[in-house]
Amino acid sequence: MRKGLLVVLIACCGFSCKEKKTIKAGGKMQDFIISISNYARAQDPDFILIPQNGEEILFEDIDPEKGVNAALVNAIDGYGVEELFYNGDSYTPDDYRLGMLRKVNASLKVMVADYLPNDDTSASFQAADAEQFIAFPRTNSNYDYKIIPGTVHHENANNIQTLAQAQNYLYLISTDNYSEKGAFLSAIQQTNFDVVIIDAFFGDELLTAADVTSLKTKANGGQRLVISYMNIGSAEKYRYYWKKTWGLHHPLWLKKKYDGYKDEIWVKFWKDEWQEIIYGNDDSYTKKLLNAGFDGAYLDNIEGFYFLYHKD
Fold first, then answer.
1. Three-class HEC string of 22-89
2. Starting from the edge strand earliest in sequence, which strands make up the sheet with 296-300, in order?
3. Residue ranges in the chain whose pLDDT is less than 50
4. Portion of the chain with pLDDT greater than 90, in percent
């Protein structure tokens, strides 16, 4: 989701049944994230959670005019946003989304992943710096988050123990450029990023606690945070939990095709069957992250509360 969702809702001839369902689903997404946080922090009080996109969930009734949802904000540490200042075009900041993020920036670390029209990342960094956000601008060749940049913005040797201390981050959730796990780990180990966001799996293999620990020291000796990507709004057909008999509406909580992503299906994320995949038991995704020693989880497809009922 790249645009402010509530603006779209209001523009669509008032609050129809569809919009009411969207708002209700937004509340369920808030509850879902809070429950994941409670489960993870009961085992690791410092576990970090960073939802991505769908910023309206930061507010009561997913309405920025109704004030911040304190329970949700207290359950997370940061917020990730894509295409805030650039969306593959010239500098075109999304003022509506920017306004929402400014309301929570004192409490949460905002992490911006812009998509640039060229290889010049300096303006994207400047835009983020001006708002006291941190940025990972990506070019066309890195649209899928598979390349490690050659330089680190605000590079430092500090020990990063909380997300609030981070001055930069690496977003590397694709391993397509690496044929072996060792090469993938080594490439990250040689960098000085304060925060590393990666997938918990290399192919079908879950990274071990030793693998994750090996990434927690920057090349310059400073400590950093290692965060795992976790998709909570759509099911991915290549994940360990996927069953060959599953498909759209089988089971029924597999709700809707995800346009542009053939291996994903939007889910009714409030259903027990899906939530049990994500947290609450020893075989859950969150438990696997805790066992592997990740410092936190980057929660994707938060905007599922909207796309279950809308096309764009």
1. HHHHHHHHHHHHHHHHHHHHHHCCCCEEEEECCHHHHEHHHCHHHCECHHHHHHCCEEEEEEEEEECC
2. 48-51, 296-300, 225-231, 195-199, 169-172
3. 1-3, 10-13
4. 92
